[in-house]
C-alpha cells in the first residue's frame, strides 16, 4: 500500500539504501539482456537449437522487456512501488531457475519471457521511486548514480557470461542470475520501504477529480443551489475543476483499484504528438542497432575468429565501455550546449534545445557503423574491432541519452508514460532487429549488413533533426489542443448536469 509518511523526510541512510537497492535491481535487469551472448555456440549445441531459434529467445526477451513497463508503471500508481518490485523480482528469479534447468529450447524461450517481464519493472518505476524520495535539488546527482547500473550491465554482462560459460557451462549464467535476483528480492522484502505518494499519482489525481465533479454535480441535482454555495474546492469554473492545485489531505479519500488502470490511453496520448512519435522512432532504431551489434559481433567472433566464450565477452565489453563514457561525456556536453542556448535566448529554455547536442554523434555514427562492418568482413586484427566497437557505443549513447532527456522534458505530467512508451518502441524495434540479424548476416555478410544498419540509424538521426527544427511548434500546438479538449469536455458535462429539469 502507498506510504503514509513522506519519503523525502527519511534519513540520508534510508534514502541511500533505497537508491542502492533500486540500482542493484536495475543492474540485474541490464545483465539479463545480453549476459548469454558469449554462450551462443554452446547453447545451440547443448539444447540443441538452430541460430534462428536462439535469436528468437533473445528477441522475445527484448520485446517482453519493452512492453511490460506499461503494465508495471500503471500498477505501481495504484498498489505502490514495493509490491511491484517484490512481485517482479520473484518472477525473474523463477524464470531464471527454470531456464537453468531446461533441456530443450522451447522452455528456454518461454521462461526467458518470464525473466523479461520481471526484469522490466525496475526500468518502469526505478526513476519514479527516486523522484518520490529525493528533492529536485539533489535528484539529478542521484539519477546519475542510478543510470550507471543500466549502462554497466551490458558492459560487464558478456564478461560474466564468458567466465561462467568457460568454467561451468552456459547453465551457470542462469544460476548466477537466480542467485543475484533472489538475494536482491530478500533485501527488498527486508529493507525497502514503499516510496509511493498519492500526490504524485496521475491516476489518483484523475479519480479524485472525477470524485470532486461528481460530488459537485450531485449537490446541484439535490439542492438546486448556486455553484457559490458549494464547498470551496468545487466553486470553480468547470474548465478549472481538472486542475491539481488542491490539498489532497483536506479532500475525501478515494480508493484506487486495478479497474482504474488504463494501460494504453496515456500511451496513445503521448504518441499523438508528432514530436514524441519521431523521437521514439529514433530511440527505437538506435537501441535496436546497439543490441544487434553486440549479438552479431559475438557470432562473428565465434564463427570466424574461433574465439571462446570468455574472449568474446572481453571483446564485446568495448561496446559497453564506449556506452558508459558516451553517457557521461555526452551528458556534460548536453548540459553545456543547453546552457549556451539558453543564454543566447535571453535566459529562456525549451525542451528542443537539448537536441542540439546530438549533432556530433549524428554526423560520426553512420560512417563508424559502415567502417565497423567492413572491418569484421575483412577479418582485420581484433584491436581494430575493439576500437570501432568502443566508438559505436560512445556515439550511439551520446545521441540516445539526450533523446531520452528530451522525452522527459517534453512530456511534463506524463513523463513516466512517455518513458514507458520509449521502452515499448525499443522492445519492438530490437525484437525485429534480432529476428532479422541472422538472415542478414548470413546472406549479406557483416560489411553490407552494417551498411543497412547505417541507413536505419541515419533515418533515426533525420527524425531527431526534424524534431529539433519543428518540435517546439508541434508540441505547443498539441498542448493547446489537449487543454481545449479538456475544457470542452468539462463544460459539456457541467452544462448537461445543471440543465436537468
UniProtKB/TrEMBL annotation:
Record's subcellular location: Membrane
Ranges of residues in domain Major facilitator superfamily (MFS) profile: 18-472
Protein's recorded name: Major facilitator superfamily (MFS) profile domain-containing protein
Record PROSITE patterns: MFS (PS50850)
GO molecular function per UniProt: transmembrane transporter activity
A cellular component annotation (GO) from this entry: plasma membrane
Entries under InterPro entries matching the protein: MFS, MFS_dom, MFS_trans_sf
UniProt feature coiled coil, ranges: none
Keywords, alphabetical: Membrane, Signal, Transmembrane, Transmembrane helix
Primary residence: membrane
UniProt topology in membrane: Multi-pass membrane protein
TM region positions: 56-76, 83-102, 114-134, 146-167, 173-192, 277-298, 310-334, 355-375, 381-407, 419-441, 447-467
Signal peptide: 1-32
Amino acid at each position: 500500500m502507498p506510504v503514509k509518511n513522506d519519503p523525502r523526510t527519511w534519513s540520508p541512510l534510508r534514502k541511500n539504501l533505497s537508491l542502492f537497492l533500486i540500482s542493484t535491481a536495475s543492474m540485474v535487469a541490464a545483465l539479463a539482456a545480453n549476459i548469454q551472448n558469449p554462450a551462443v555456440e554452446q547453447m545451440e549445441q547443448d539444447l540443441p537449437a538452430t541460430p534462428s531459434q536462439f535469436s528468437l529467445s533473445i528477441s522475445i526477451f527484448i520485446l517482453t522487456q519493452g512492453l511490460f513497463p506499461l503494465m508495471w508503471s500503471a500498477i505501481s500508481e495504484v498498489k505502490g512501488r514495493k509490491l511491484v518490485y517484490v512481485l517482479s523480482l520473484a518472477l525473474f528469479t523463477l524464470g531464471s531457475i527454470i531456464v537453468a534447468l531446461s533441456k530443450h529450447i522451447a522452455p528456454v524461450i518461454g521462461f526467458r519471457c518470464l525473466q523479461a517481464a520481471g526484469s522490466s519493472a525496475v526500468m518502469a518505476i526505478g526513476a519514479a521511486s527516486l523522484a518520490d524520495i529525493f528533492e529536485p535539488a539533489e535528484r539529478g546527482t542521484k539519477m546519475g548514480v542510478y543510470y550507471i547500473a543500466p549502462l554497466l550491465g551490458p558492459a560487464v554482462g558478456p564478461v560474466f557470461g564468458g567466465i561462467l560459460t568457460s568454467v561451468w557451462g552456459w547453465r551457470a549464467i542462469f544460476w548466477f542470475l537466480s542467485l543475484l535476483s533472489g538475494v536482491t528480492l530478500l533485501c527488498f522484502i527486508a529493507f525497502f520501504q514503499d516510496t509511493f505518494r498519492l500526490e504524485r499519482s496521475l491516476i489518483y489525481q484523475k479519480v479524485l477529480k472525477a470524485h470532486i465533479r461528481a460530488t459537485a454535480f450531485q449537490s446541484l441535482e439535490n439542492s438546486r443551489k448556486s455553484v457559490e454555495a458549494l464547498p470551496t474546492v468545487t466553486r470553480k469554473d468547470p474548465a478549472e475543476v481538472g486542475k491539481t492545485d488542491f490539498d489532497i489531505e483536506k479532500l475525501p479519500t478515494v480508493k484506487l483499484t486495478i479497474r482504474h488502470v488504463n494501460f494504453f490511453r496515456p500511451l496513445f496520448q503521448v504518441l499523438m504528438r508528432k514530436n514524441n512519435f519521431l523521437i521514439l522512432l529514433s530511440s527505437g532504431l538506435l537501441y535496436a542497432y546497439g543490441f544487434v551489434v553486440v549479438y552479431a559481433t559475438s557470432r562473428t567472433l565465434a564463427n570466424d575468429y574461433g574465439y571462446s566464450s570468455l574472449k568474446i565477452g572481453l571483446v564485446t565489453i568495448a561496446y559497453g565501455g564506449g556506452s558508459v563514457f558516451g553517457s557521461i561525456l555526452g551528458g556534460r556536453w548536453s548540459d553545456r550546449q543547453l546552457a549556451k542556448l539558453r543564454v543566447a535566448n535571453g535566459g529562456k529554455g525549451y525542451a528542443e534545445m537539448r537536441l542540439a547536442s546530438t549533432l556530433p554523434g549524428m554526423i560520426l555514427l553512420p560512417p563508424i557503423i559502415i567502417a565497423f562492418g567492413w572491418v569484421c568482413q575483412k577479418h582485420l586484427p581484433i584491436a581494430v574491432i575493439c576500437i570501432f566497437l568502443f566508438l559505436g557505443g560512445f556515439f550511439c549513447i551520446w545521441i540516445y541519452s539526450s533523446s531520452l532527456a528530451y522525452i522527459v522534458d517534453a512530456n511534463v505530467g506524463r513523463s513516466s508514460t512517455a518513458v514507458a512508451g520509449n521502452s515499448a518502441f525499443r522492445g519492438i524495434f530490437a525484437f525485429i532487429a534480432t529476428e532479422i540479424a541472422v538472415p542478414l548476416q548470413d546472406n549479406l555478410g557483416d560489411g553490407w549488413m552494417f551498411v543497412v544498419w547505417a541507413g536505419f540509424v541515419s533515418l533515426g538521426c533525420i527524425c531527431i533533426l526534424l524534431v529539433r527544427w519543428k518540435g517546439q511548434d508541434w508540441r505547443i500546438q498539441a498542448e493547446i489542443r489537449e487543454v481545449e479538449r479538456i475544457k470542452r469536455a468539462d463544460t459539456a458535462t457541467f452544462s448537461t448536469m445543471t440543465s436537468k429539469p
